[in-house]
Amino acid sequence: MSKVIMVQGTMSNVGKSFLVGGLCRIFASDGLKAAPFKSQNMALNSFVTKEGLEIGRAQAMQAECAKVPPSVDMNPILLKPTNDTGSQVIVKGEVVGNMSAKDYFAYKKRLVPDILDSYNRLQEWADVIVIEGAGSPAEINLKADDIVNMGMAELVDAPVLLVGDIDRGGVFAQLLGTLELLEEKERARVRGLVINKFRGDKSLLDPGIRMLEEMGKVPVIGTLPYALFHIDEEDSLSERLDGRKPGVGSQLSLAVIRLPRISNYTDVAPFESIPGVEVRFITDPRELEQADLAVVPGTKNTVSDMKWMKESGMEAGIQRFAVAHPVIGICGGFQMMGETIADPRGVENDGDENSDLSKIGGLGLFSMDTVLQRDKHRSQTAGSFSALTDIYSCLSKEEFFGYEIHNGKSVLRDTDQETQVMKDAKGNVILLQKGLVFGTYVHGIFDGGKLAYGLIKALAEKKGISLEEKPLDYQVLREAEYDKLAEMVRTHLDMDFIYGLLK
Q: Would you state the pLDDT for residue 242?
C-alpha cells in the first residue's frame, strides 16, 4: 500500500498546488515513486494526457514535479465553469455533460467509486501519494457528501497538512477558524499547520505561532516565504492575471486579452520567463497602445467571449492593432480570428439552439469559419512548423509539441499564397499564419526548446532592440523551477515531521 499525505487550505489560492508539487519533487529526488492526486478540481486550465484524456493543468504540473507521466487517475473529476452557476463535468477525462451547481451537488456522491478506482490504480505503483484538497474544508454549507477535502481524507485515511496564506492577511484567524469549524474527527486528522507567502523577519511571527499552537493544539511545521515561480497554475485567482508581471523590465510588452472565461492562459508562460519581457493581462483596448504583441488566449465559451470582445471595444482594438503588430490566437482565440463562429446545437448554451449566441461574427483576420460541435477534440499534437513568413519565419521547420482541447472545427473559405496552412493527419486545420497574424489550436505550442525566445528575439530586432543573448530553453527552465520550489519547501518545512506522518 502506498503511503499518503494530504494538503488542504484555509481557502482557494493559498498555495496548495505548489506545496503538493514541491513535496512530489522532494519525494522523487529522495528515490520514492510519488504521485499527485486531486479527486475533484475546478479549473479552466487543463491538460490532455497521451491517451487523449483531460485533467487539470495543476495535476500535470505536479506529475512533472514527481518525474512521472501525467495520468487521468491523478484527477478523476474536472469541473470547467461554463457560467456563474454551472460547469462542464468531466469524469475520467471524458465529458459527462453540463450541470448546475445544485444538480452537481446532488450527483457528486455517485462519483466516489470513480475516485477510489483512480486512487487505487495509483497505489499499484506509487510509494507515496500526495493529495490536494480544494477550497476550504470549513465550507460548512458544502460538507455534506464531501469528496475532495475531509471526505477524501477519510476515504483513504490520510493525515492532513493545513495551509494558510499570510500575504492575504489574517492567517491566524484563517487557521484557527478552520480548525474550530471542523468536526472533532476531522480536526484530529490535521497533523500540521503551514504558513505560506510570508514576507519579512520570521522572528516577528514567533509569538503568534506559539499562541496559535497553544490554542489550536496542532504544531506549525514551517513558514514558507513569499516566492514567484515560472510554474503553471490552475486558478483564475492567479496573481499573474492582475495585470503586469512583477519585477520585470519593459523592453517589450505582450498584452494578453483577459477574456471573461479565459482558459489555459499558461500558454503565455514561456514569454513571461524571458528577461526584459512584460506580460500584461488586459480588459481595456486602450492598453493595446503600449503593447508590441497581442495574444487572444483560449476560452471555455468562445461565442459569449466574442460578444464581450465586441461590447468592450476589444474587437476593434485588435483589428487596428493587427495592421502593424503581431497578433497570436490560441484555441478559442484562434476561432475568434475567423469570419464567423456558429453554435447551432447550443454546445455553449446548455442545448439552447435558438439562443442569440448561436452565431456571431469574428475578428475577420482569417478567411475561416468555425462550427462548434458536441464532441470535444482532445489529443496531444506534435510536428514541425511549415515555412512561415514575416516575423514568424524564425519558427520555420522548428519542432513543436502541445495538446488540443476544443469543441469546434474550423474550415477555410478560401486560401491564398499569403496564408500558411498546417493541417493534421485527418485534414483538420490546426494552424494558420498570414503576415502578422498567427493562430493555432495547439496549446503549449511555444513551450518547447527556444521557440518563445526566438519569436521574442525577432520581435526585438524588428523594433531595433538588442535582447540579452541568453537563449532560454523553457523546458529546462521549468525543471529548474521545480527544483527551486522543492528546495524552498525542504528548507522551510520540517521534512522529518512530514516523513514521520508517512510511516
A: 60
Q: Cell for 19?
A: 506545496
Residue 160 covered by a domain: yes
The number of beta carbons lying within 10 Å of the beta carbon of residue 141 is 6
In the set 325, 406, 443, 492, the catalytic residue is 443
Segment-wise mean pLDDT, segments of 10 residues, the chain, 503 residues: 96 95 98 98 94 96 98 97 88 94 92 97 98 94 90 97 95 96 96 96 92 96 93 62 52 95 93 91 96 96 96 98 98 98 87 70 97 93 95 96 94 88 92 97 93 94 82 85 97 97 90
Note if 377 is an active site residue.
no
Is residue 419 a part of any domain in this protein?
Answer: yes
Phi–psi pair at 436, nearest 5 degrees? -90, 0
CB 269 within 8 A of CB 230: yes
Give residue 310's domain range.
243-474
CA atoms within 13 A on the CB side of 38: 29
Phi, psi for residue 79 in degrees, rounded to 5: -110, 125
Question: Is 331 known to be catalytic?
Answer: yes
Sequence letter at residue 196: N
Residue 266 forms part of a structural domain:
yes
E strand or H helix that includes residue 503:
none
Q: How many domains does the chain have?
A: 2
Catalytic residue among 65, 331, 394, 406: 331
Q: Distance between CA atoms of 400 and 334, rounded to whole angstroms?
A: 17
